Amino acid sequence: MQVKSRPFGTTKYGEGVTAWELENASGSRAVILDYGATVQSLVVPSRGGKPVDVVLGYDTVAEYEENGGFVGATLGRVGNRIGGARFSLGGKNYELFKNDGENTLHGGARGFDKYVWDAEVKDGKLRMSRLSPDGEEGFPGNLSVSVSFELTDANSLVITYDADTDALTPVSLTNHSYFNLDGEGDILRHELRLNADRFCEAGADCLPTGRLLDVSGTVFDFRAGRALGEALAAEDPQTGLFGGFDHNFVLNGLDAASVYSPASGIVMDMRTTMPGSQLYTANSLSERPGKGGSTMGPHSALCLETQVFPDGMNHYSFPSPLLRPGEHLHTQTSYAFSVR
Fold first, then answer.
1. Cα separation of 80 and 146, whole Å?
2. What is the pLDDT of residues 73-108, one digit of tens each?
3. Are 329 and 323 in contact (CB under 8 A)?
4. Quick check: is 299 catalytic?
5. Does residue 68 register a pLDDT over 90?
6. Can you give the residue range of the structural domain that contains 31?
7. Which of 56, 68, 147, 236 is surrounded by the most beta carbons within 10 Å?
């Protein structure tokens, strides 16, 4: 993997942002910004050999700062939602910023996606790191966190997360890339396979109710693979709440998901060590310009955000998102690309 860097712009705080370009032996390329440890571009070959950029993104720092959607960013300290913007640890209550109605979403007012990270090339990987200080966005403990990106010669983007803390704190790190395997248009013809027998029932506020529902006989059954357009068109009270999917699936194992586009022939296989993945079909992504004159909007992409279950610190039956002093967090998610 070859790594080059170039200036990408300046934040509203006057910080310089660098674009790090990864290229493998087969010519596939990824661009990672140190602003938000963000996947800005990911170019892989299609069935006919034509290169396709399979993630949504912006051309300028200002667009990343001003537009919502967390496009391509690393999320933390806790990705997804925390109900009531509060949780308790050891008898102490922690109040967070409410940036999603009464809830906290993707880290709060200024989550990990809105910082410039330190970056270095180490052991053949691009490593980005930062220290989230005690009290940042209301979370306890000093959290040292790093995210490593590797583009293998087998056309797999591997993202590895590591973290340590000096106090008990919730941590759930993920990437919020929006994938479109055609590079443009919608994802209704994309075929999704999800290795999950259950999903988290959600309320109108998109928070889990605490119930894990069986996917059998529902629009949530992607175990054999099905077109997203077919699933989105079917009537279901859960997808009706949000105009599509915005739910956590309980993964059965490392082989988590696969997405295929009949148009481009591109296949994306996702593997992860995380217990869950949020399927989001960009329901509330308002129409807006993207990089290179492209347009993004509702159902123009899908996200597969690997994670600990949403609001996990408020549901004791869920996998625990808590990291303790002396413990080391190490998780990994990979996206492998091929054609058929």
1. 19
2. 999 999 999 999 999 998 999 999 999 999 999 999
3. yes
4. no
5. no
6. 2-339
7. 56
Number of domains in the chain: 1
Q: Which of 137, 150, 191, 305 is catalytic?
A: 305
In whole angstroms, give the CA distance from residue 331 to residue 321: 12
Q: Which two tokens stand for residue 197?
A: 């027998």
Q: Which residue has the tokens 């170039």?
A: 6
Residues 6+ apart with CB under 8 A from 253: 195
Whether the CB-CB separation of 139 and 94 falls below 8 Å is answered with: yes
User: How far apart are the C-alpha atoms of 328 and 88, rounded to whole Å?
Assistant: 22
- Residue 305 annotated as catalytic: yes
Give me the catalytic one of 106, 176, 190, 315. Answer: 176
End-to-end Cα separation, the chain, in angstroms: 24
Give the separation between CA 55 and CA 61, rounded to whole angstroms: 17
Count the Cβ atoms, other than its own, within 10 Å of residue 229.
Answer: 15
- pLDDT single digits (tens) 39-66: 999 999 999 999 999 999 999 999 999 9
Query: Looking at residue 20, which CATH number applies to its domain?
Result: 2.70.98.10
